[in-house]
What we know:
Blueprint: H1 8-14, H2 21-26, H3 34-40, E1 45-58, E2 61-73, E3 78-86, H4 89-101, E4 105-106, E5 108-109, E6 128-132, E7 135-141, E8 148-149, H5 152-161, E9 166-171, H6 177-193, H7 198-204, E10 207-208
Parallel strand pairs: 8-9
Antiparallel strand pairs: 1-2, 2-3, 3-4, 5-10, 6-7, 7-9
Amino acid sequence: xxxxxxxxxxxxxxxxxxxxxxxxxxxxxxxxxxxxxxxxxxxxxxxxxxxxxxxxxxxxxxxxxxxxxxxxxxxxxxxxxxxxxxxxxxxxxxxxxxxxxxxxxxxxxxxxxxxxxxxxxxxxxxxxxxxxxxxxxxxxxxxxxxxxxxxxxxxxxxxxxxxxxxxxxxxxxxxxxxxxxxxxxxxxxxxxxxxxxxxxxxxxxxxxxxxxxxxxxxxxxxxxxxxx
Length: 228
């Protein structure tokens, strides 16, 4: 490919030192190039959550811009959210997708409901709560077969993250779609921040990241390294 990485993490991916998204996030290096995600997660899906028209009056007349919110995920443990503002819808969506890739997180899944004992990571391992603005979203583990008993915005994000069953409770001004989306994203982010013991991991069947691991193909014709 013609991509020339400009960051240390990008060079490590291109050289084949990092082959999975989990390894890339574990380095704690900043994710500043969308091409890294394209290589490590080629099966990524995206969905436009919100399209908002922003108008401003100037001396030359009315100017209109579009503010786009997009969620991306592979449906197997990784999800990201991004926003962009531009004069045209198409380029703004593409830029928002790239921004969402730069905010990719790895979530934990499990079988945390006391009503279920299937032993597969189909739901959440424990209750998590996220907040953005006035909106507060609480996601709880649900038994297998319940599917996503949450709102449409939260359903899209949870589905792209790979959560198949969950109860959801929302408070605040949920008509603010952007805050609703970010509150759900922040709730899922909490799963990766909580520390769990080995005993808890085995009991709740907790899996961090993907169940089916994708390994990036080693790149050839590596260009000379560049400084950050």
